[in-house]
Amino acid sequence: MKQTCRLCKKNEANQTGSHITSAFLLASQIGKRGNEKSFLISTDPKQNYLEDRKDKDVKEDYILCSDCEKRLSFIENIFSAEITNKIEVEKYSQNYISVAAETGIYLNCNKINPIAFHLFFYSVILRISISTQSLYNHFNLEAELEDELSFLLDLFLPVVINHKVAQSVDNWEKMVEYCQDLFSFFPYIVLKSRNQSNKTGNYQWYDNVSKEPYHLMLNEYIILPFFNSLVYEDDFFQLKDHISYVDFLNNSYDCVKLGILENELYESIIVDLQDQATSARLKEIRKEVIGNLIANNIPIDRATVDALVEMEVNKLNM
Description:
By secondary structure, the chain is an alpha+beta fold. It has 2 domains: 65-261, no CATH class; 274-317. Helices cover 38% and strands 13% of the residues. It has 8 helices and 11 strands. Strand 5 and strand 6 form a beta hairpin. Helix 3 packs across helix 4 (143-156) and helix 7 (263-295) crosses helix 8. The longest helix has 33 residues, at 263-295. Residues 35-39 have low confidence and may be disordered.
């Protein structure tokens, strides 16, 4: 039985193949539509790391209605045109004013409508939270936060009439400018690696290991939503010493801020995530090996366990 759309809360969730994380954001990491190549890392001791998952982990059926899918695509097109397609192109450099904060550098993205920018990231965060796909289902906002985000998105996304978006970008921007006093801000920081030449080794990582702020990684982007408080208490990605977080916060209509991370720092986060995933996976394999020894009344000693763990690792091509 199909559910109600998780965004508008009115229509039937009839859309299939909704991208949880926007396809254009992932193209440089897993490939363009129809040619995706991706791999899932988990702590499951039986999982084959070498299985090409293509795009099946980043899409989901029946969480949105077809109208809301079109409304989200409208915002995605604005972001893609003004940020994704231009930010690393020299001739558009004047669109991104570099600002040196007390610690770190951010870009003031002065050509994109601020509400479009914020709605885009709010929509990404909401979709990750409501998804049941294994890649995303460890990240969940509180139900009240989900409701507030979906209400704001539904209020400000473009109007659909007869299943078609009924507004041009110019018309929509005039509307949201007129209504900007109704816009609610959910503070967040968004960071981007500096012009990576090869993004195929980047990660998507979503979890609830920290909530002040939340920590999300999406290809070359890191998103730190300060949705519960403005206190930078949790530092899972160890970024606190590299950014003046108050300066980097997006929490007003006046300025769109995109923090820049040097590639060496960004890649060190990926290595740390990989090390943690490997360690957790090895613990699960060791636990399973010991359980099997106990079940078969075989004496347990470190050498036996280590040998069996190594055998399982080699078998799985970890």
